[in-house]
Amino acid sequence: MILKKLLSAVCLLLCIQFVKSQGNTHSTSAQQEGIVGKVDSLLAIMTLAEKVGQMNQYNGFWDVTGPAPAEGDAAKKYDHLRNGLVGSMLNVRGTEAVRKVQKIAVEETRLGIPLIIGFDVIHGYKTISPIPLAEAASWDLEAIRKSAGVAAAEAAASGINWTFAPMVDISRDARWGRIMEGAGEDPYLGSKIAIARVKGFQGDNLAAVNTVAACSKHFAGYGFSESGKDYNTVDIGLARLYNTVFPPFEATIDAGVKTFMNAFNVLNGVPATGNAFLQRTVLKGDWGFKGFVVSDWGSINEMITHGYARDGKDAAMLAANAGSDMDMESYHYVNQLEALVKEGKVDESLIDDAVSRILTVKYELGLMDDPYSYCNPEREKQVVGSKENNDLVLDMARKSIVLLKNEGNLLPLSKSGLNIAVIGALSADKDSPLGSWRLAADANTAISVLEGLQGYGGNKLHYEKGPDLVVGEPSFILETKINTTDRSGFDEAVAGAKDKDVVVMVLGEHGFQSGEGRSRASLDLPGMQQELLEAVYAVNKNVVLVLMNGRPLTINWADEHVPAIVEAWQLGTQSGKAIAEVLYGDYNPSGKLPMTFPRSVGQIPIYYNHENTGRPTIPAPDLVFWSHYMDESNDPLYEFGYGLSYSRFQYSNLRLSDNTLVDDGQITATVTLSNTGAYEGTEIVQLYLRDLVASRSRPVKELKGFEKVTLKPGESRDVAFSIDRSLLQFYSQNNTWEAEPGDFRVFVGGSSKTVLDTGFTYKK
Ligand code: BGC
User: Fold this and answer.
1) Given CA atoms 366, 371, 373, 374 in this order, what sign does their dihedral have?
2) What global pTM score does this model have?
3) pLDDT tens profile 682-731
4) What is the tens place of the pLDDT at every residue in 138-170?
5) Ligand 1 centroid vs 89 CA: distance in angstroms?
6) Ligand 1: residues whose CB is within 6 Å?
7) Who contacts 333 (Cβ-Cβ below 8 Å, separation ≥6)?
8) Which atom of ligand 1 is the closest one to the Cα of 181?
9) What's the 220 CA to ligand 1 centre distance in angstroms?
């Protein structure tokens, strides 16, 4: 007995030494293999309380560079940190601050296990990229990967090792404020972009000092919140879940994503956070996910409000049993899990599994080797805000712009001899273009449109702000108040537009009108902007409307009247430069919409890849019994995949290598693309398929391939897409992912309103 105790004490000491004394080497694949053994050894010496501590994540709770908190909630958290009861922190950033908390975890706790430091690096850290929805409009996977790489490099240089991104929620509801964080409405494009983002964040070596662990969120269904209202109920069938919601999540596992975040919403009656079907059956079971799942902020606690858990203890039990490995800011794991295990309500093997997953990621990040490897102030200075990073986000910004209209080739503008009015509260705004979710960015650091235009010297610029868009200083956490009463500047703006050769109007949403908690019931231009647009147009028809927005807007009037419309979203730090380059033709726009623009809110959800009704078209003039609105068209304002260029592209000669696709064979669809315009330009060629008859009614069209092609004026090129069984698969009525034999249509074009089609038969 005594010998046994002695042996285990020696072993404990050795293991502790082992954990604390790892060298400075970075992980290689051989070491990866060794990680399992290291995790097991560490787990073997951890007390239950220490294990639960690894599952506890706290928000940065005091100014860590100041004195330690002496009393209150912060003091309690601080105490937990010193006693090894905290495994992760979020919202602590900067090498100095991170080193300070890391030091406590490493040097003051019994086992010295470092913290994993999480942060919402959504579209850049300090050098801000376009909002993710804008980046999706580029359809440029390489640029998106690089943009995520910039974000990762800056965050990692600032002490952070884990980003809560990418958000891969598919959504068809422009009212939902969080669509700015995602890739839009399509699961195929969404999956490709999700992979690019994970690869950009994580790189090839997670332990490298310029990469961070990524997090696929919010699992699952959050983008289908009823009525587009944030945090709302989600009730969708299995086919929708598997065919539309799941694909980008599953794709990120193939890309090697290290973590998942669950969601605030209830899915079919069960909160995602306490949902064992989602987290255990699908994610960790069917998909074999080996990383860990973090709850959303306080979402374990919110299961009480949902009426799913009785109290904190019940909530902790439900979440842990359902597969939520880490508790973000609910405090229920740290307070309840130990007792729940002792009472037999949560099996300790589940705790061990969760902790192993968390420790594995810490090893993979290199934190166990060198907890301070992300805390080098010299590197922080060098990397954050570098010229190279700014060049990369500028490139991303250019590629994200979508030309929506260009009547009479008003654009591009001549670089000299013009008298230009620049109008609108957003035109000189240096903060709003940074968009929502840019927590580490310094305020007012975006290049405004006005500054971008001033960078070109040849024209005369006359700037008029017009009425304010927002009241007061908008912020990430407070409600954004829109000015609807103060007309100051209105008349001056209209007067300033008169007699100018061109008016550039920069209108849209403030950057803090989208993002979390920012759903809108109207998608019109907010405040007085519509009135201003009409008044300016009345005195000068040569209006170029530059839109800044975090979601599709209902801009029917503008589409009908204004000759040129440029969709410029919120493009981040380099916004104004990218926009000016497009307006002056130094960059020929090539973006395509990743989300349908509705004509009215009443059409929502409106998306291109819908199933057919039994009555999709009018059977006879004036007959009422077909699927339509009495007061609105069925068509969107701009369809998914839409976007113009200063050049023109023609599609011809769509042909298939064979009319039959056999089981695991492949056929090729080839189309000829010609640039018939006067500029060199880039077109995003899109391939769509339709399964004509299947065991479930299938969408009228589904994106299954795309390619970015750059052609000189007069140049033509064949563009080929390979089609195989994988593109035909869906969640069939057998409740399995399979391709069913039968006839398929193939469509190709420059948007989801494709121009050419043909067909083939698939035989098993
Ligand atoms: C959001 C998450 C985010 C988390 C941490 C939550 O409110 O839903 O997406 O990662 O906060 O900031």
Assistant:
1) positive
2) 0.95
3) 999 999 999 999 999 999 999 999 999 999 999 999 999 999 999 999 99
4) 999 999 999 999 999 999 999 999 999 999 999
5) 13
6) 90, 120, 164, 217, 296-297, 516
7) 52, 55, 56, 300, 316, 319, 320, 326, 327
8) 9
9) 14
